[in-house]
Specification:
This protein has 94 residues and is mostly helical. It has one domain. 82% of the residues lie in helices and 0% in strands.
Amino acid sequence: IFSSAFITTALNPKSIVFFLAFIPQFIEPELPFTTQAVILGATFFVLAIISVLGYAALAIYAGQQLHLPLIQRWTHRIGGGLLIGAGGMTAVTS
């Protein structure tokens, strides 16, 4: 999963434009470019890992909560109500 997420993010045109527009603001022309690029890249990588781990933890928690009977009951009620509403709207507008 991690490798596919990395490839998707790396090949996303919005990510490329972001780096081209945002990162040069933090590059000092007097200092070596390679060192600065490595530091900025490592910082972004660490923050991205923290973000992805946070989303993963949230997804695990949500998945566990969805197995609770009370949550399933309300999920089924809300889903059924939405389907009834969509059917009603289809009947009225047709």
